[in-house]
Amino acid sequence: MAPRPPAASMPIGIAVPNLAEVVAEIAEEMRVRADRGEVATYIPELARVSADQFGIAVIDNDGKAHVAGDGDVPFSIQSISKVFTLTLALGKAGNRLWKRVGREPSGSPFNSIVQLEREHGIPRNPFINAGAIAVSDLILSGHQPREALGAILRFMQFLADDATITIDNAVAASEQRTGFRNAALANYMRSFGVLDNPVDLTLGVYFHHCAIAMSCRQLAMAGRFLAHNGINPTTGLSVVTPERARRINAIMLTCGHYDGSGEFAFRVGLPGKSGVGGGIIAIAPGQASIAVWSPGLDPSGNSHLGQLALEALSKRMGWSIFGA
Amino acid sequence: MAPRPPAASMPIGIAVPNLAEVVAEIAEEMRVRADRGEVATYIPELARVSADQFGIAVIDNDGKAHVAGDGDVPFSIQSISKVFTLTLALGKAGNRLWKRVGREPSGSPFNSIVQLEREHGIPRNPFINAGAIAVSDLILSGHQPREALGAILRFMQFLADDATITIDNAVAASEQRTGFRNAALANYMRSFGVLDNPVDLTLGVYFHHCAIAMSCRQLAMAGRFLAHNGINPTTGLSVVTPERARRINAIMLTCGHYDGSGEFAFRVGLPGKSGVGGGIIAIAPGQASIAVWSPGLDPSGNSHLGQLALEALSKRMGWSIFGA
Amino acid sequence: MAPRPPAASMPIGIAVPNLAEVVAEIAEEMRVRADRGEVATYIPELARVSADQFGIAVIDNDGKAHVAGDGDVPFSIQSISKVFTLTLALGKAGNRLWKRVGREPSGSPFNSIVQLEREHGIPRNPFINAGAIAVSDLILSGHQPREALGAILRFMQFLADDATITIDNAVAASEQRTGFRNAALANYMRSFGVLDNPVDLTLGVYFHHCAIAMSCRQLAMAGRFLAHNGINPTTGLSVVTPERARRINAIMLTCGHYDGSGEFAFRVGLPGKSGVGGGIIAIAPGQASIAVWSPGLDPSGNSHLGQLALEALSKRMGWSIFGA
Amino acid sequence: MAPRPPAASMPIGIAVPNLAEVVAEIAEEMRVRADRGEVATYIPELARVSADQFGIAVIDNDGKAHVAGDGDVPFSIQSISKVFTLTLALGKAGNRLWKRVGREPSGSPFNSIVQLEREHGIPRNPFINAGAIAVSDLILSGHQPREALGAILRFMQFLADDATITIDNAVAASEQRTGFRNAALANYMRSFGVLDNPVDLTLGVYFHHCAIAMSCRQLAMAGRFLAHNGINPTTGLSVVTPERARRINAIMLTCGHYDGSGEFAFRVGLPGKSGVGGGIIAIAPGQASIAVWSPGLDPSGNSHLGQLALEALSKRMGWSIFGA
């Protein structure tokens, strides 16, 4: 794009805020807050995580990582994985994917089945559960579940440049035992022919990629290509085309926080995707790849402190995509 | 915000695209296209407008207007007016407004009443019809309809720096005669206490501000404050705070095109608001205020050529807010 | 139909229960109960009525009236009037009526607008508010509101053989002032062309016929034709054909108690229609026409004691249409 | 109940219609009709059945069977089985059953999942698929699927007094392979705790009892207890209490034909339950137990000729429960 001049609102002589300092400040502010949201209880393994934790990692343009709080503690990334399975499935199926999944905000909770009935089994977008299951099904097609999961995990390791990332099988097993709502969604889509594979296998892939464990640092590393027009800035290698990177960001902005997506855009002003493990990845295009984590959730299922931290970061750094 | 360096993807030595040329190219490309969408027929006055027309106006950072095609022909701005009544109502009521109107995408057509029943009469956002009627009601409170409309019209004239802008009373009268769906929405909200004023008066204000007639040039002029952190760049005067400008842009991005909002974000990557008259206003933060117009609509009720033109403009100028 | 032999379950020698005694017993049982439901508050005039009251009237095959408790106190019949406007409109429009109104149970509260959106403005049945408004519109067509109301009132007086029945204008005016939900329904149907007349006039007719005041005795008298195959047993004159009488009873059974219709069929086993004034009319085909009244309502909007009384009456008299 | 006198509308000297003749007439009228509806295609085994067939069986008060057409050809009873599983489950669980299943008409197609979301996993009534699955789950609890199915089959054989009735395993297997929508419903209810058993086992019971094959004669025999206050008139043994028989009839009347239930009550005026195999059982309380069968369905999924035949039968015999 065209080089942007300094924004009209940035008076000459005002120092650019120091990212390292801002990250440290925010981590400290979050550490001491009393309001921490509610830890998700529907998966026993997630319910055991302490709400006291808060982590943040910001990777800037130069590849420098600013990490604070519990930013190196791994957690269950849950729905954040959907950003990466979408990227992988678009690489495999291209725009054919959009015949199975829409790209409109849903106006409904993450696990609503009503929308599916109204729209003949086509999920509204790839970030509600139904949509992500349809994406998993596309990745699975032509493979064994083990192979599909291996591909997803290797993609995460590649993006994060970290071969130690693994799947927490206890979390996956726990979800598989109790994931009746997701089984309902999958069977429902299968009844419309939106899924191709046996429902159990598709759900197996879905539950396992949601159970990938990563730290904020690893997640922020993995998101860099979205902040840099599809290119990994360290290696200079292209992960996706610039257009596809922009489009994934657009879907994160409109659909990344369930029925709190409008609120996140309004307050934070960055593309982002949350998970019920309390993590959020956010992208400041051309500026930084960001991950925050705090297990307490708001009523929409998004990390309470995570959103506050991102709101503060976006504001102090002037990173909102909606300002100049 | 911090000054942005030239994007990594912009190779040194590549010329910045020339906005004047790009605007002229796009106008010519749109002029010759055979696919033009369907002109809205539900208001007789709108149905008479020829689908052959296409206009575009882009006001750049220096205040220079690039206008092509039918960019100086006035048309019925319809729902585009909702951006400006929202701005006005926020100035009057502040964040109290958000007790009556949400800010989440609706996942439903513009005139759906289902969402209102589920959410106790609170419209999902200020850009669906119900939400805009609630905003009109806030502007009306404490005033006569004539005064409220005068305030809205003067605000448009002030923003566009053009005292000739008027309301097309034939369009307003036509909508008032046939606007039973909007009367249903208004009465429904009134039954929940979301409206304060007599339904007829509130609807009168609503129908009339939707009937304001403006050209692309006038609309693009009126939108400049949203591209420049709330400041009118010509006068240097502040219209709204930088935060409010960003937030209005965020709502346009997530809710500005009814149930085509996700698609618009995906393809165009700019905050925008459409109207059934065929106009769209779009904001490239820090770069430009844009208006396009072509009366033929797509099935979601958004201008067919208008969207194509904005997609081309955003792509060629590198203005997507989702890229670096 | 064929004469029915004594039911197999009725042992020879068991005395037929005495209707007069049963009615008196039930009135006494209801008088002393502490649980009385909640009086409707949405219309100020209805909210002032004391929950202490209970009335019952049963007109048997011989035209003898068994009246107890407050069975001669007039009350606002509200939605019970819909049985009679349906009868009148069928007389005027014949089966053409069923192009504008369905005859399926709604599965929704009485004032739901969701169903209308899904079914293109056609109300599910003539006993939900939207359906009754559409019926009022049919009665109004070709007349002034005053004439239409006169026709409805005279029909009630004729059926009840009582020229003193009147409309309580204070109740009608109160509903007209606050009936925003009904105005929403009417405008919504008008937007689909389901109503022909100006919304205000149709609603005027609707609100006024709901405000007719009658006692249990008068209501039970008015319902006799439905218990006797369409014939007024006193005069021997036919009000409707036997088939039409059966069909109106069928709609009362499936749709007469909003989303408590299944429950009423299950517990009482008689066609019936309730009103938020606390009245219920019920029909024991070939046996009796019945009206009860007690202002306290259950959560579905049906008279709490009224339903209990009808359950007891149907059981003790062996009148359920579902038994032999 | 009290013995009913001959209805006032039955002029003295008019002969009671002859049931044997009426049944024969109707069978002939149906045999020659050209309009036969559409055979269900979603189960391959059902799709192969010829639409040319029509059968009828009526068992009168004296236990005499009037059978005509293909009334002795076995067919897949499908949802008609739900009447009998409900009876069995009420015997096992009593009114506790109503904590898991409602008894209101649904206002939705038979396999809608929307209603479940709105009502927290509680199906509206035991005759929509979700409700019948919940009933199967209650029957299964404490047993192996084989035992539960054995109990259901023996109950049918006992009621029909015919030990040759069997389950068509090819139909059951076919439904199990393709029943994704039902798997969605079951998993969805399980997510709310409305089902207790493993979803696969509950669905196995459900699919198999829907695959019971019976002729009209066998079905009409099985329904006799509902026409006679819960008593098998041949043996004099009580199957259920009179009150329970009436209540099952009431649910059949309000919910027995999916979203065609109101229409069936309106036209036929008898409690009845249809299945997508083209069968319908209907009860004329105190008069007869009836079964009809013709595989072609109307858009609501109910046998087209079956309904016409029942309408004619009810009318000619004067059996409507809504007339005197």
How is this structure best described in words?
Four copies of one chain form a homotetramer. Chain A has helices at 19-32, 44-47, 81-93, 114-118, 129-140, 145-160, 169-178, 180-191, 199-210, 216-222, 224-227, 242-255, 261-267, 304-317, and strands at residues 38-39, 55-60, 65-69, 75-76, 166-167, 212-214, 272-274, 279-284, 288-293, 296-297. The first copy, chain A, starts with 18 loop residues before the first helix and ends in a 7-residue tail after the last helix. The first copy, chain A, contains 14 helices and ten strands. In chain A, helix 3 (81-93) packs across helix 5 and helix 6 (145-160) runs parallel beside helix 9 (199-210). Chain A has two domains: 19-77 and 215-317, 3-Layer(aba) Sandwich (Beta-lactamase), CATH 3.40.710; 80-210, DD-peptidase/beta-lactamase superfamily (Beta-lactamase, 3-Layer(aba) Sandwich). In chain A, the strands form three sheets. In chain A, strands 3-2-9-8-7 form a five-stranded antiparallel beta sheet, sandwiched between helices. The interface between A and D is medium-sized, with 17 and 17 residues.
